[in-house]
Amino acid sequence: MSFAFTVHQVDPASAARRSTFSTPHGPVPMPAFMPVGTQGTVKGVMLQSLRDTGAAMILGNTYHLHLRPGEELVRGLGGLHQFCGWTGPILTDSGGFQIFSLSDIAKITEHGATFRSHLDGSKRELTPEKAVAIQEALGSDVAMQLDHVVALPAEPERVRDACQRSVRWARRCKDAAQRSDQAQFAIVQGGLDPALRQWSAEQLIPMDFPGYAIGGLSVGETPAEMVAMLDVVCPVLPADKPRYLMGVGRPEDLLEGVRRGVDMFDCVMPTRNGRNAMAFTSRGNIKIRNLKHARDESPLDDQCPCPACTQHSRAYLRHLFQAEEMLGPMLLSLHNLTYYQTLMSGIRTAIEAGRFMEFYRERMTAWGHVSQVGASEL
Predict the structure, then answer these.
(1) What mean pLDDT comes out for the span 322-339?
(2) One of 11, 147, 266, 301 is an active-site residue; which one?
(3) Which of 11, 93, 147, 253 is catalytic?
(4) 364 in Cβ contact with 373 (< 8 Å)
(5) Phi-psi category of residue 95: left, alpha or beta, with phi > 0 → left and psi -120 to 50 → alpha
(6) Three-state secondary structure along the chain?
(7) Confidence at 374, pLDDT banded by 50, 70, 90
(8) Is 266 a catalytic residue?
């Protein structure tokens, strides 16, 4: 099967859109949230349970899989799908964000990035061409260009330099691609500079990538600043290509992104917070370690169909964390992933019904974000 992106409906009161992204490993209903499986696994969640949450597409990471177990081993064992057992679509990040996070031990030049492995200290190099080769060996459905990410806030000249380098690297990534069964997405950079963001998009669009990501956000800026960049970038990006907001984020961020026309999201937050005893619920966040839950027989969320909510009480879940039983983090991770997928399903249904903004207002109010909605919208 070839790749195809079909927009079925656009919400009449916003830029939210209901679409489907078809890949060689199946369709992805959008807007979609991709659980993060950095090392070829979504931490603490077995595959069937992951499928049961409603996830259609997951994310793996080029940097980590390159270091361990190595892309050639994965290729030799049938590719990442066969290796990890996930039969649905997989997107691989290029490693740019990991280089950013290792900035104290990485050096970036026009050629690429050199760094030392955080595992054994061995010297490594990641160029645009190498990032493409690794992802092609892994065999993901979607490969990301290598980009240059900088923390925010940053000096304007540093942001401009990284943005311009990312555009040049995008061309090199596209020229290096050889697999017809792998779609490559470009990444719009530019920090918090509206003109630079627009310039980045305008440079990348003529290269005709199958999809476009918005990167370099969720790296120190405020939620309002992130939304402001979406207001600049989303209207410029092609309407007939998927739009992917990288590394974001909180449930309210997903709604803000969808409202502006974003189709794809990923974030470690559902599983990371789950491992740290924090649950997302329809009525707000719950810290299950709190003493008030010690004798609470109620479920985490009576609207959630996951095993943590249908089979266990808050008291029992708290006990698991107090006793340092591994089942606690596993159950809360699964709950949070289910919550995110249920949210995305609700978003898709609302767009189909032409009532996304009503859904947006309902959710924001339930989470206590009335000030973000605005009095005129209530």
Answers:
(1) 98
(2) 266
(3) 93
(4) yes
(5) left
(6) CCCEEEEEEECCCCCCEEEEEEECCEEEEECEEEEECCCCCCCCCCHHHHHHCCCCCEEEEHHHHHHCCCHHHHHHCCCHHHHHCCCCCEEEECCHHHHHHCHHHEEECCCCEEEECCCCCCEEEECHHHHHHHHHHHCCCEEECCCCCCCCCCCHHHHHHHHHHHHHHHHHHHHHCCCCCCEEEEEECCCCCHHHHHHHHHHHHHHCCCEEEECCCCCCCCHHHHHHHHHHHCCCCCCCCCEEECCCCCHHHHHHHHHCCCCEEEECHHHHHHHCCEEEECCEEEECCCHHHCCCCCCCCCCCCCHHHHHCCHHHHHHHHHCCCCHHHHHHHHHHHHHHHHHHHHHHHHHHCCCHHHHHHHHHHHCCCHHHHCHHHC
(7) very low
(8) yes
Average pLDDT, the chain: 95
Over 70: is that where the pLDDT of 158 sits? yes
Kindly indicate the confidence band of residue 375, based on its pLDDT and cuts at 50, 70 and 90. Answer: very low
Identify whether 147 is a catalytic site residue: no
CB atoms within 10 A of CB 113: 25
Q: Determine what percent of the chain is predicted with pLDDT higher than 70.
A: 96
Structure tokens given for 351: 């767009």
Residue 185's nearest CA partner among 5, 378, 29 is 5
Judge contact between 35 and 335, C-beta under 8 A: no
